[in-house]
Amino acid sequence: MYPLEDRTYEFSKSVVFACKKIPQNNINKNIINQLIRSATSVGANYCEANGAISRSHFRNKIHICKKEAQESHYWLKLLGDCVEPESSEIERLILESKELTLIFGKIISTMKTSKGKFNNKK
């Protein structure tokens, strides 16, 4: 297993490369653009969370990570069902977006149950 920052970066990069392989047209252009925005936002917001200056700032960024991972999951499913059927790469990315959503959800639930001083160690 590797650090979550690396994992979110690899997710973003994999989505970008997968989308580059798909010929864009009027039907799928918006789906691809939305997917790239949400997928790259997961990692960017996680980097910001790691640099958070307070517990509330960290919590806010982690909530955004979860939301963007959920949105990426939606766009990947739509892409897989409507645009790029039977793609093992899309299926792998759908699974990864779901796992990232669960990971960020667990971080959020752990923060709700843990009280104490904010510690920004990577």
How would you portray this structure in words?
- The mean pLDDT is 90.
- Helix 1 packs antiparallel against helix 2 and helix 1 packs antiparallel against helix 4.
- The chain has four helices and no strands.
- The chain has helices at residues 4-20, 29-50, 55-83, 88-113.
- The protein is an all-alpha fold and 122 residues long.
| Count of beta strands | 0
| Shape assignment | elongated
User: Secondary-structure element order, as H and E?
Assistant: HHHH
**Unreliable stretches, pLDDT < 50, 5 or more residues?**
none
Number of DSSP helical runs: 4
What share of residues are in beta strands?
Answer: under 5%
Q: What's the Cα radius of gyration?
A: 15 Å
Label the structural class. Answer: mainly alpha
Distance between the termini: 15 Å
Indicate the mean pLDDT.
Answer: 90
Largest sheet: none
Q: Which bin fits the share of residues in helices?
A: over 70%
